[in-house]
Amino acid sequence: MRTVRFIALAAASALALAACAPVDEENDPGSSDSAAASDGALDTLTDGVLTIGTSDPGYEPWVVDNDPSNGEGFESAVAYAVAEQLGFDADQVEWVPVTFDQIIAPGTKDFDFAINQVSISPERAENLDFSSSYYDTAQAVVTVEGSAAADAASLADLQGLRIGAMVGTTSLQVAEESIAPTTPVQVFNDNDQVKQALTAGLVDAIVVDLPTALYITAAELDGGKVVGQLPAGDDPDQFGLVLDKGSALTQPVTDAVDALREDGTLADLEAQWLTDAAGAPVLP
C-alpha cells in the first residue's frame, strides 16, 4: 500500500499532567516510573514483553501496510513511544490481532493494552480501563461525487439521506445524534464495508473519524469528498489506550501518555502522520 504522509492536525492540547514518581506501591500498585520494565517490575502478560492489541487489517493513517510492527502510522508510532516510556525496547513489543468488538468487550484480555481508535466513554469505562487521551478528534461526513449528499451544506441537508457507519463506534453514535436522519443509520461490521456501501450506492454518505475521512477521500475513494465535520460541542471525541478493568498497568500507561503529550511527542507524531482539517468545516 502506498504510504501517504500528512501535515499537521491541530497540536494536542497541553493540558497534560506531568508523569510522576511512584508513591507507596502498597497503596497505589499501579504507580511506576518509566524504567520499571527493565527490571521486570511491570506486571505484563509475559515477563519482559509488552503485548499490544490492534485490529487486523489496520488502516492508514493509523497503521501503514497493515503491519503495526513497522512503527509506521500514527497509532503504531504512538504505541512504540509508550513502550519506550515504559522501558521496553522495540524488540520487546509483541502485537496481537484483535477485533474492535473484542477490545471493548468486558472480560480478561490477551493484550497488555490495545490501541485502535477506541473512544473513551463512561459506558465503556464501566468494564474497561483507559489511559488519558492520546488523540482528540472529530467525526466527519464523507460522500462521493454524484451522490445525493455531494452538495449537502448542513445537517438538515443530510437528514433525509441514507447514512452509513461502523457498528459500535462513536461515528455511529454521533451520526445518530447530530444528523438525526429520518431513516435509521445503516450499520456495517468494519470501515471497509462502510466504504464499499458508499461506492456501491447503498448509502449516500458515511461517518468516520476526521483523519480517516481525509485519508480515504485523498487515497482510496474515487471522487471522494469530505462534506464536513459533525459538531463536537464541549465534549470532543478522545481516543485512549484500552486495558483490563483494574489493570496494574493503567497508571504507568497513563503516565507514559501524559509524558508524551507534555514533551511534544504526540504533537510531532500528529504532524508526521495526520492531516490538516482545512476544507472540512463544521456543519451547521
Descriptive keywords:
9 helices; elongated; 27% helix; single chain; 19% strand; alpha/beta; disordered N terminus; 5-stranded mixed beta sheet; 284 residues; 3-stranded parallel beta sheet
Short description:
This protein is of the alpha/beta class.
Helix and strand layout, with pairings?
Blueprint: E1 50-54, H1 74-86, E2 93-97, H2 100-104, E3 113-114, H3 122-125, E4 128-137, E5 139-144, H4 155-158, E6 163-166, H5 170-179, E7 186-188, H6 191-199, E8 205-209, H7 210-219, E9 224-229, E10 237-244, H8 250-262, H9 265-273
Low-confidence stretches: 1-35
Q: Helical residue percent?
A: 25-40%
Strand order of the largest sheet: 7-6-8-5-9
The ordered string of helix (H) and strand (E) elements is: EHEHEHEEHEHEHEHEEHH
What structural class should be given to the helix and strand makeup? alpha/beta
Question: Overview of this structure, please?
Answer:
By secondary structure, the chain is α/β, with parallel strands linked by helices. The chain is built from 9 helices and 10 strands. Strands 7-6-8-5-9 form a 5-stranded mixed beta sheet. The protein has a 3-stranded parallel beta sheet with strand order 2-1-3, covered by helices on one side. Helix 5 links the parallel strand 6 and strand 7. It starts with 49 loop residues before the first strand and ends in an 11-residue tail after the last helix.
